[in-house]
Give the backbone structure.
Amino acid sequence: LLSEKNIEETNLKFKIYSLEGRLVRIKTQNGYLSSKERVNINVRDLPAAVYFLSVESKEKVLYQSKFIKQ
């Protein structure tokens, strides 16, 4: 997902928003993260719906994507 963007940053925040714009999940990755590493975010308990993923560093949005949880 993110490897195509070649993001290499520190202290990333992975935020998942509902279709209504409500923040439903946040995961912080402290330290350095290279584009070759994976970050897993558990969404099993979220209901089936459309969600938006935002990856941020220092309050700057680095990546955004939409996904469907079935």
Notes: The mean pLDDT is 85. Strands lie at 9-18, 23-33, 49-57, 60-69. Residues 21 and 55 are 15 Å apart (CA to CA).
